Amino acid sequence: MTALVRCGWVSSAPEYIAYHDEEWGRPVEGDDRVFERLTLEAFQSGLSWITILRKRENFRSAFAGFSIPAVAAFDQDDVDRLLADPGIVRNRAKIEAAISNARAALGVGLSDLVWRHADPGSPAPASGADVPALTPGSVALAKELKKNGFRFVGPTTAYALMQAIGLVNDHVADCWVRDRV
Q1: Angle at 163 (CA atoms; ends 158, 165), nearest 5 degrees
Q2: CA distance 86 to 111
Q3: Is 9 a catalytic residue?
């Protein structure tokens, strides 16, 4: 039996393998589901993605399952609760941005807004070196999100979101998942 070829960023960590094989690059729609991914990508900024994967269930619990109306109703007591929660990344700016973003998401169809920037026909990268950190599409998405009141959503975070939820297919050409998403 031959080993499956995966994208170069996948380490031997079981969380990375499962995330890559079952989630990354697969279409995610629905406002709460997109909000979850946007929030987690913002929390990942400056950290390793494995840190977020290992804390994801804690994030889901701490952020009311990423229900936009529930998170939008969070107050200072919730900020204090989150800052004291060792199960998540305790960064005040990111916590406050997540709450602010939930409030911004109440006024827009987040999933539709994000999916307007899909680029499913992007060419298959030959290797990880061919995968950009940002694109004109991610710059436009970040700009539109910011225009609608979202925070912690620069072009690099926007591109990571685009990759994660299937707006682009950045599985490398010989990755076994590429043609399955």
Answers
A1: 95
A2: 30
A3: no
Instruction: Read off the pLDDT of residues 121-161 as tens digits, 9 standing for 90 and up.
Output: 778 899 989 998 999 999 999 999 999 999 999 999 999 99
Dihedral pair phi/psi, residue 109, rounded to 5°: -85, 95
Catalytic residue among 23, 49, 96, 144, which? 49
pTM beyond cutoff 0.90: yes
Handedness of CA 39, 40, 41, 42 (dihedral sign): positive
Catalytic residue among 19, 24, 115, 159: 19
Q: How far apart are CA 68 and CA 104, in angstroms?
A: 9
Secondary structure of the chain: what % helix, strand, coil (to 5)?
A: 55, 0, 45
Nearest-angstrom CA–CA distance, 155 and 13? 28
* Distance from C-alpha of 85 to C-alpha of 124, rounded to nearest angstrom: 40
Catalytic one of 36, 41, 115, 159: 41
Query: SS3 for 46?
Result: coil
**Interval 43-73: pLDDT, tens:** 999 999 999 999 999 999 999 999 999 999 9
Annotation says 49 is catalytic: yes
Residue 68: both structure tokens together: 């936009």
Is 176 one of the catalytic residues?
no
Read off the pLDDT of residues 83-99 as tens digits, 9 standing for 90 and up: 999 999 999 999 999 99
